[in-house]
Fold this sequence. Notes:
- By secondary structure, this protein is an alpha+beta fold.
- Helix content is about 35%, strand content about 25%.
Amino acid sequence: MIRLLLALSISLSAAPSFADDLIVGRASVVDGDTLDIRGERIRLNGIDAPEAAQRCTDQAGREYRCGKVAAFALDEFLSKSRPTSCAVLDHDRYGRAVADCVRADGLSVASWLVRSGHALDWRRYSGGRYAADEATARANRAGIWQGDFQQPCEYRAEKGRRKPSC
């Protein structure tokens, strides 16, 4: 419990205007970087995970649904320590809360996703906060780093026929 309070106080002290908005509960996974807690959609701050339909290639060159794998891995990670607590930092253009989230044991959800290779450090929004986690995943050839992949923001842009927001 002390670890959770410490992690939340660190998250809250770094948060701008929405810091007093805390969402706590059993998180359902929407996709690799989006959660739902009690009907509130939450976009994990500073990371970008492959989209549900996105395909990557593994070390043997075989295609797999890396977005689906990321979502399942996130669900498994969250199931090991509940509830999830999210400190809301902002809201995105889709109305989702943008938040830093931790499990009940104080582990950062975004940091784990990047370190395990299921998401990227989205430097545009994180300021490089997860760069060390991404370097670890890359060095360990974890998750999407085991083979080839398209950046999720490029994949979305291609599917929506618009300019990438990477």
